[in-house]
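S.,

Sequence below, as promised.
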Amino acid sequence: MVRSSTKVLLALAAMVPLAGCISFAPKPPPSPLTLTSTTTLPVGNTQNSGTAPTITIQVPVVGQSLAGTRIPVQASETSIAYVAKAQWVEPPNRMFARLLSDTIPAKTGRIVLSSSQAFSDPGAVLSGELRAFGIDAATQDAVVIFDGSLIRTTGKIVEKRRFEARVHASAIAAGPVSVALNQAANTVAGEVADWVGK
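The prediction came back faster than expected:
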């Protein structure tokens, strides 16, 4: 009995020096980052689907490097790191879909439908893949690449287009990177809105 107690105490004593090296959960950043739309409808604006075209915006699909909330840095052609102490409030594809939902109505007059509203008639449908939403270490640019797929009328022809924006970040750190990515994402959202609205 004494021998087993001694073993437990020795094991606990051995673990004390490791306490500063091991983390069972990542420490959250001081303030999670988000995107802010630079183009939105005015407060109090009323839209009517009887007089305006509608669109359903699906959350873009992403690869594994963008499936979480960390900001990837393309360190080389085959390796990815992450910006230290930087984390989005939610995965970037969801934030980007919300940015599109703010930008498209403001620039085109279209009404964005929720999935439940779009059940019987989704109107136009915008989907796609968010291919890049991070930093290129070689150029220190924030890079946003979106491969859009657009069906203008239900069951008709699919149009596809790639959109890309690059904005230089003053440093690879949470603040400068989030500002540059926000600007690049708004540029892409604006170009997508112009494509949808034509």
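The two ends are 81 Å apart (CA to CA).

Coffee later?
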